Amino acid sequence: MNDLNGSINDIIISGFGEPNIMLTTIEAEIDTNGKVKLLEPVRVKKRTRAIVTILEEANGQIEEKGNGEALLALLKSPLFQNRKVYSDEEIDRQIEENRNSWD
Question: Alpha helices of 1-103 — where are they, by DSSP H?
């Protein structure tokens, strides 16, 4: 953590060819033109590389209520009710087959 009231998460990683790499996570917004706006102050000692992870949101909004109604509708749907159900043995066989196909 740092002196910004714990709003930035720091992780130290070893073993990537450098003695230690510090990953710092901060929140940002990206507009439709690709411009990145950092939502927290960041201080670096020199020009620094960054990795950006884009979090897709529905209609630009995070759903506060969840999808309970949609989940219930799916569980009651004919598609779900008539789905093929596999035995534990069949699932294990498929997993083993997929594992062995990588060789």
Answer: 68-76, 78-81, 88-100
